[in-house]
Write a structure and sequence with these properties.
The complex is a heterodimer of chains A (about 525) and B (about 475).
Chain A: H1 2-11, E1 15-18, E2 23-26, E3 29-32, E4 38-43, E5 49-56, H2 70-77, H3 90-115, H4 124-140, H5 148-155, E6 159-165, E7 170-177, H6 181-193, H7 200-216, H8 219-231, H9 245-250, H10 253-263, E8 269-275, H11 279-290, E9 314-319, E10 325-331, H12 340-351, H13 357-365, E11 369-375, E12 384-391, H14 397-414, H15 418-434, H16 439-453, H17 458-467, H18 471-481, E13 487-493, H19 504-507
Parallel strand pairs in A: 4-8, 9-13
Antiparallel strand pairs in A: 1-2, 3-4, 5-7, 5-8, 6-7, 10-12, 10-13, 11-12
Chain B: E1 3-5, H1 6-20, H2 28-34, E2 42-44, E3 53-56, E4 62-67, E5 73-80, H3 94-104, H4 112-121, E6 125-130, E7 135-142, H5 146-158, H6 164-179, H7 185-198, H8 217-227, E8 233-239, H9 243-254, E9 277-282, E10 287-295, H10 304-316, H11 322-330, E11 334-341, E12 350-358, H12 362-378, H13 383-396, H14 404-416, H15 423-432, H16 436-446, E13 453-458, E14 473-476
Parallel strand pairs in B: 4-8, 9-13, 9-14
Antiparallel strand pairs in B: 1-2, 3-4, 5-7, 5-8, 6-7, 10-12, 10-13, 11-12
Helix pairs in contact in B: 1-13, 3-6, 3-8, 5-9, 10-13, 10-16, 11-12, 12-16
The chains are: A alpha+beta (about 525), B alpha+beta (about 475).
Chain lengths: ~525, ~475
């Protein structure tokens, strides 16, 4: 058996190692369907399973004020079934959902009315509308087959089943036994062709609870939400992926439906299948299931808002009953920019591993923090470069902030050593190799790059681009970007502690929680 | 019946659905799905002697190997029979500190800084740690760096020098984590709940600074000397190597390590008992954090398979489970709802269910929990629920072995944890032999609605309903941790 396995692997090795340079070539097969859907396949027969990643080139960045959280809400809704899945009688559901939509619109109006400063009444109308919606929801339940997509996947052995939404993209993923490829194609193409945002309003409540869990009642979540909101005054990266609380209270099924029609068309999708499949089979099968889905007539609009140049430091404090934390951010270029890899290399020199600059100085030597990290993400639009630290008593958050600036200044003055540069290059090269180990990890990286820069093979150029980064590049980028007037600083503070100087104004930015219904 | 043919499984699934036509809700899509055909997959449960090689050195060191030449990487994972479980409460921190400082504190031939520099320069890693019931060490290197990786792994296991500065660093990191232990609602509930269930048994005790502050180098040296002998260690290797050649290298490096005398103390047993009641912790939050449960089963319990399926139906099967359907999908009360019978430890695991909901709904969530605990004890589940649970376990099984790393580590773990060597070969038969009646039987036997320990962390002033409907209410206070 062992012999057989080994032979199989050798025959169909998806990666070929070029002995001379130690480089690893990736055998990615691609196909673009006539409706614009892009497919990436890596055949890999290590285990009779495959991983599938469906990536939509749309995220919270594509939302508009008032409907923040829609991209993520839509992701939840796509598990709620279609005209074919999740229902015993779709036709009977339609009028009920129509009634709910009408009441929900009234509810939004009623909620807005209670928020009017001149309003003196109670919440009777809001309460009664909520009760009426609940009643029809109950009636609809007789036709609903609960979470049938999820159940079907689980029953067929689905592993790692989930979906996620970010600023730049939305992805749906699952790993299955290799003989379930057609099942996957059916379920995914069906939810792309026939989505019904059923049970929308109870799911909106679920997402509101998700927000409470991850943001409102999480020290880290609360801090990062306010940090982003302060760093971006115009660009959508400033609002949270989960959405503002008040938007989650009022966003309508219709809003999210429009969002679907605008962005979920085949020409806005990248799919990767990695595992025990044959490329030709996948293309044939997918042509049958996805090929008929018409592309959207409208092109997907780009985000045209550009964050204006920052003209002065911004500081924000967030009160939460927890020990202090600190985040420092600087606007940086988007992924693909000529300077992006400089940030990548710099992050590793600063905080990756026990030999890194900030770890050595602040964790080991000065013992001012328990942990410190720095990173810049590969994003569609310019994001912030973030340095995050957890102070260690008795050091105060202000002292830690100053110490970080001192260390950065020293580093900028000295520049990186050749050893540091080479250490980082070796690590980033090894990351690439390790990233190929899992089918799902590879599928994620391929779709991510294809979606962001239009070409998965950009991944292969990163090594070269990083090798070109010099010590001078790093000091130049530090001088250009890591400057006070490009900086946003956020503190997590205990409610009883004194406000650090200069933060009074920023306190008004702290988002008051919407009261639960 | 070692050969697993997923096709047969599918036949039974299709058959099941057809039978159910009359009694279960059906969508048009499910009929399409029922007509899909799944080509046969032939797959063998990996075994020692086939895909995986097992060997032992004369000094008792046990080795597992699985080659995989796809990528130029090699990793190793070591397990050591040790753990804080063997130590009294006052000494509970020694194990963890020893495990970490074995790596951070340097070795005979390498100072802490040189260890870091050597490994990080070649993008490799060697790490070490000790948990409650085992110690572990790992190595991950590019294949070309195997020799230096192996050497470092060996030195970390055999010759740690426990640099005192690194011991103090480790202690001060722990001190800060104790100071911060109430920062996140989830960690408060998980810690305090375990303490209510297990009391001062190692599974439930809470780390305090007073148990850490006086620990010194001698404690760590003694701890290491007690457990780190080759005859108490297993290592699994996977990656781009030749098993014979690697075996020789290991023998050369580890072979001189003499057998040690092992005097592993007895493990304290979990006292089987219950602690019913409602325990409330007050904190200024907008969401109530709820956790309920009691002692569950041991992992060698023959009912384990039936319990797993029962829990899948109750609250373990994410969206297909009853708790999620009712709390999340039907009523929109929570994002996260789940129940589990944990069997990760050697003694009694816990049954627990948890959720987080807006403060005003805490009562309602507890009510639904209670109703569902009772229902699964009183009624046999529907055929569809039962088959979904069973098929999910059967069809997902292959993913426990979908990478060489998982395969070799799972097989080594069997030996480490004293499972029978044919555990995985029998696994599917064990799952398939569970009957629909068993679900009710094990629910009655192992789920005890009357004995639930109920914990609610919330802004208690906003819970209007009377939680004493669920049991006697006790207010627990979160004390400022003492860290001076």
């Amino acid at each position: 058996m062992k012999k057989l396995l080994t032979t199989l692997i050798l025959v169909a090795l998806p990666f070929s190692v070029q002995a001379k340079k130690g480089e690893i070539k990736l055998d990615v097969k691609t196909h673009t369907f006539s409706n614009g859907l892009e497919l990436l396949v890596v055949e890999r027969h290590l285990s009779p399973t495959f991983s599938a990643m469906v990536r939509f080139k749309v995220g919270s960045t594509d939302e508009k004020p008032g409907i923040t959280g829609s991209a993520h809400l839509l992701e939840h809704m796509l598990f709620k079934g279609t005209k074919n899945i999740g229902t015993t009688n779709y036709d009977a559901e339609v009028p009920l959902m129509g009634k709910i939509d009408k009441l929900a619109l009234e509810l939004t109006e009623a909620i807005m009315e209670t928020k009017n400063p001149t309003y003196r009444g109670g919440t009777e109308r809001v309460d009664s509308l909520r009760a009426s919606i609940a009643e029809i929801q109950e009636e609809q339940k007789q036709y609903v087959v609960k979470d049938e997509i999820w159940e079907t996947y689980l029953r067929n052995g689905g592993a790692g089943l989930n979906a996620s939404t970010g600023n730049d993209g939305t992805q749906y993923y699952v790993s299955l036994p290799s003989n379930r490829l057609e099942l996957w194609a059916y379920l995914e193409s069906d939810r792309l062709s026939n989505p019904i945002l059923r049970e929308f309003y109870s799911e909106r409540d679920v997402v509101y609870e998700e927000r409470r869990l991850r943001t409102d009642n999480s020290p880290r979540g609360k801090l990062y939400e306010q940090y982003n909101a302060a760093a971006f005054t115009a660009h959508p990266y400033g609002w949270p992926v989960v959405g503002w609380a008040s938007d989650l209270e009022t966003v309508l099924r219709e809003d999210v439906g429009e969002f679907f029609h605008q962005y979920y068309s085949p020409n806005n999708i990248v799919i990767a299948i990695v595992g025990d499949v044959k490329f030709n089979d996948v293309v044939k099968l997918m042509d049958r299931y996805f090929g008929k889905i018409p592309p959207s007539k409208k092109t997907v609009p780009p985000v045209t808002t550009i964050e204006p140049e920052q003209k002065g430091e911004r500081r924000v404090a967030v009160e939460y009953d927890a020990e202090p934390r600190l985040v420092i951010g600087y606007h940086m270029p988007a992924g693909g920019d000529i300077d992006f890899e400089v940030f990548d290399v710099m992050s590793s020199i600063l905080t990756r591993g026990r030999t890194s600059r900030l770890y050595k100085s602040l964790v080991e030597e000065r013992q001012m923090v328990t942990s410190i990290g720095a990173w810049g993400s590969f994003t569609r639009y310019p994001d912030v470069y973030t340095i995050s630290a957890t102070p260690k008593a008795p050091f105060k958050v202000e002292e830690v902030e100053q110490a970080i600036y001192e260390e950065l200044a020293d580093f900028q003055r000295e520049g990186p050593t050749e050893w540091e540069l080479q250490r980082v290059r070796n690590q980033l090269d090894a990351d690439y190799v390790r990233g190929l180990r899992s089918n799902m990890g590879l599928a994620r990286r391929l779709t991510d790059m294809q979606a962001k820069v239009g070409d998965w093979s950009f991944l292969l150029t990163l090594k070269e681009r990083r090798e070109a980064v010099t010590a001078n590049d790093i000091t130049r980028v530090m001088a250009e970007y890591l400057v006070p007037n490009n900086r946003t600083v956020a503190y997590l503070v205990k409610p009883e502690s004194e406000e650090p100087e200069g933060q009074t104004m920023k306190f008004q930015r702290v988002h008051k929680q919407a009261v639960a219904k | 019946m070692r050969k697993i043919i997923l096709f047969t499984i599918m036949i039974s699934l299709v058959f099941g659905i057809t039978l159910l036509d009359a009694q279960e809700k059906q969508s048009t899509g499910s009929r399409v799905i029922a007509n899909l055909e799944y080509p046969e997959i032939k797959w063998d449960v990996p075994e020692v002697g086939k895909e995986v090689t097992r060997a032992a050195l004369d000094n008792g060191l046990i080795l597992y190997f699985m080659e995989n030449h796809e990528l130029p990487l090699i990793s190793a994972h070591a397990l050591i029979k040790t753990g804080s479980i063997y130590d009294p409460k006052e000494m509970m921190a020694v194990a963890g500190i020893t495990g970490n400082v074995m790596r951070t504190g340097g070795t005979k031939s390498y100072s802490p800084d040189s260890l870091n520099a050597i490994l990080e320069f070649v993008a490799g890693s060697v790490e070490s740690g000790i948990g409650s019931e085992s110690g572990s060490a790992s190595m991950s290197v590019m294949a070309k760096d195997l020799d230096s990786g192996l050497n470092i792994l060996y030195e970390v296991l055999r010759y740690p020098t426990f640099d005192t500065a690194k011991i103090e660093l480790e202690k001060s990191q722990i001190k800060e984590s104790i100071r911060r232990r109430d920062d996140r609602p989830g960690s408060i509930v998980s810690r305090e709940f375990s303490h209510l269930i297990y009391g001062d048994h190692p599974y439930g005790r809470i780390l305090e600074w007073e148990y850490v502050k006086d620990i010194g180098r001698d404690d760590l040296v003694a701890y290491h000397g007690k457990y780190y002998h080759p005859n108490n260690i297993m290592i699994a290797f996977t990656g781009d190597f030749n098993t014979k050649k690697l075996g020789k290298k290991i023998k050369k490096i580890f072979g001189s390590w003499p057998i040690g005398k092992l005097a592993i103390p007895p493990e304290p047993a979990v006292e089987y008992g219950f602690n019913p009641g409602v325990y409330v912790i007050d904190k200024d939050l907008t969401q109530a954090n709820i956790r309920v449960g009691h002692l569950g089963i041991k992992r060698d319990n023959p009912d384990k398979y039936a319990v797993s399926l029962m829990n899948f139906i109750l609250g373990g099967g994410s969206f297909t489970s009853r708790l999620t359907t009712r709390v999340r999908s039907d009523e929109g009360l929570a994002y996260s709802v789940r129940s589990a019978f944990s069997t990760g430890s050697r003694d009694y695991g816990m049954f627990y269910a948890y959720s987080q909901t807006k403060t005003a709904s805490a009562y309602r969530v507890l009510e639904i929990f209670n109703e569902e605990f009772k229902r699964i004890r009183e009624e046999i589940p529907s055929q569809a629920e039962f088959e979904t649970a069973r098929d999910a376990y059967v069809n997902n099984f292959i993913f426990q072995f979908d990478s060489p790393g998982k395969i070799v580590n799972r097989l080594m773990n069997l030996e480490f944890d004293d499972y029978p060597p044919n555990y995985y070969n029998k696994y599917l038969d064990n799952v398939r032999s569970v009957t629909i009646e068993d679900i009710k039987t094990v629910a009655e036997k192992y789920l005890k609605p009357e004995s639930m320990t109920i914990m609610v962390l919330a802004d208690t002033s906003k819970i209007e309903a009377d939680l004493s409907d669920f049991g006697k209410v006790t207010n627990l206070e979160l004390k400022e941790p003492k860290v001076d």
